[in-house]
Amino acid sequence: MNSPATTAPLPLPRVARFESLAFGLFLHYGLYSQLARGEWAQLVEGISRDQAGRMRDEFTASEFNAREIARLARRAGAKYCTLTARHHDGFSLYDTRGLSDFDSMQSPARRDLIGEFVEACRAEQIVPFIYHTTLDWRWESHCCDAQKFDDYLDYLRASVEILCKNYGPLGGFWFDGNWSRKGDWKESELYSMIRRHQPEAIINDNSGLGWQWQERHPELDCMAIEQTMPKSLNWHGWKKHVAGEVCQTLNAHWGIATRDFNFLSPAQVIENLVNSRRVGANYQINFGPAGSGRIPDYERATLEIVGQWMSINGRAMYATRPAGLRCQGRDFVLEGEGKLFYFAMDLAITGHENVTVAVGATGPRSIRGLNRALRSAIWLDNGEHIHFTQARDQGYATLNLTGYPYGSHLVVRVAEIEVDPRED
């Protein structure tokens, strides 16, 4: 019998469902979007609380279209989407029902943007998630005295309870800010309240850029991996299986920053998405709408291209998990639906040497640790059969990989492998 220190717990059903979603969109939108200099502009530039408050009176959200956002998520191949209900400036995109006057209902927009977002996501079969800050600059929660901090935590729980009670079943909550202050955040009180109203909601916490994969509060279902690509996720010896989620920005800021030209390419997004799945983590890519709420052009175009890749290879991404097999180079294998999916990196294009870029390679690549008999292997993009050989007694198989057909380059090419079922 294995000792507890050498075993890994199985995920709870809600966690397993979340992991099967695989890919999500993240949107940072709020008063800071009007400045277009990043979501931390208020603190970095020393903008006073009163100045930030006056920005509420200019917030119209005139081009914020929740249905358009949800449709973009669906076209991108994302299964869930997260929107900032409240960020660190303390401004809420939802009706706080008298708890505060610093919300979108008290701005010229006169709209409950979270209500619109949740409804739109459901209409497009996208699971709605809610980001909610725990750090609040208006309350000075990071530096106020103990009594004010206790009052703030009461306000925080009341704020989240409004979301729990008035928007129907939510996919989960993405919290951010506990890293800003040491001490008792009364997480158990917050999380138990969520469980009463939203028992199936995923509770996710961002530990900040100093992220470490370690057990934390027992009610957490997921831990955010901010701007970092983990090499592995290991639950051996843990009391609970906690999902990992890689959260990354399309450029260097979470909120829109019009002078930030440091964008990821569609190819980089595709590689980061598959490499997240390689270790069993979800991937959530972020962009910031413009101050008006409009989706910027580059972000839209990039996600449309990622969606084209997902339309070909999505079966290999959802409800799959690492297969524990060893491959050559950067290649890896996921398993799901009773099949194996081989992810081939660094493939060459097939064509005349004068018109093809001399990068990547074709030919035999090995899989080790595979003792099930292979029945077939085909490329998902065109159905072409891949020749293979196998030495089952040695747990070894070789795929003879063909290159991209001339006129194509998928960045990562995926093969579906039929295998005999595992023996009991």
Walkthrough of the structure:
- By secondary structure, this protein is of the alpha/beta class.
- The protein is 25% helix and 22% strand.
- The chain has 2 domains: 4-316, TIM Barrel (Alpha-Beta Barrel); 323-419, Sandwich (Immunoglobulin-like).
- The chain is built from 9 helices and 17 strands.
- The strands form 3 sheets. The protein has an 8-stranded parallel β-barrel. A 5-stranded antiparallel beta sheet has the order 9-11-12-17-14.
- β7 (243-249), α8 (266-278) and β8 form a beta-alpha-beta unit.
- The longest helix has 21 residues, at 146-166.
Q: Spell out the CATH superfamily of the largest domain.
A: Glycosidases
Give a short account of the largest sheet.
Answer: 8 strands, parallel, barrel
H/I helix tally: 9
Number of separate strands: 17
Distance between the termini: 18 Å
Structural class call reads alpha/beta
Taken as a percent bin, the fraction of beta residues is: 15-25%
H/E element order: HEHHHEHEHEHEEEHEHEEEEEEEEE
CATH topological fold name of the largest domain: TIM Barrel
Helix % is 10-25%
Q: How does CATH name the architecture of the largest domain?
A: Alpha-Beta Barrel
Rounded radius of gyration (Å): 23 Å
Overall shape: it is: globular
Give the topology.
Layout: H1 13-21, E1 23-27, H2 41-44, H3 49-55, H4 66-76, E2 80-86, H5 113-123, E3 127-133, H6 146-166, E4 172-176, H7 187-197, E5 202-206, E6 222-226, E7 243-249, H8 266-278, E8 282-287, H9 297-313, E9 321-322, E10 326-327, E11 332-336, E12 339-345, E13 363-368, E14 374-379, E15 387-391, E16 396-401, E17 412-419
Parallel strand pairs: 1-2, 1-8, 2-3, 3-4, 4-5, 5-6, 6-7, 7-8
Antiparallel strand pairs: 9-11, 10-13, 11-12, 12-17, 13-16, 14-17, 15-16
